[in-house]
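I'm stuck. Protein, please.
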Amino acid sequence: QNRAGKPLTITDFQVNYLNINRLKYMFGEIFIKNEYLFRTNATKPQIIDCGSNIGMSVFYFKLIYPECSVLAFEPDERTFLVLQENVSQNNLENVSLHMKALANHDGTVDFYFDDENPGQLTMSTIKERMPKVKKEVLSTRLSNYIEGEVDFLKLDVEGSETEVIEDLQRENKIRLINQMAIEYHHHVEKGKDNLSKILKILEESNFGYQIDSSFSRP
């Protein structure tokens, strides 16, 4: 079963979900707090959504910029099926979905999840983030998908953000990104906090930044 109940109507979208409390949390963060609000003069913004889960962020981007194109990544199969269903049944155009984990290599990677609680927001390629069970999923480098200007990058990849940003810098693709929202996950692996690495890359790439913190999520 890939749904927790009947679809709910959120703004103009019919939304399938896996867990009602998690849906409420994502709605609050994305639609109420406007975590991913950005301004652009582009009439058809190019958006990359890394860590799409069931697609609440995709809905949000389509709400604020109906003509936008979205490239979305979600590695967990059960979650991806709901994401796929949400995009399909709402007839969202110019949304490209990829069931892959973002990493610093192309191939496969171990992915840790909770089989009894599908769609959890803490699923990760890092065992310490989700010390439950693991499976092998396809992995890819984000730099493979960036050839032209990106208006907005949302990066929420549960501990893999440093290697993704390092790859974008190494392949000289970070220069093509105009704005981004990065969720940094600290204290995931003992002794491996490296926020300064990301900030150094952002500074070297002429990005300004703001830092905000929040409590743990469900």
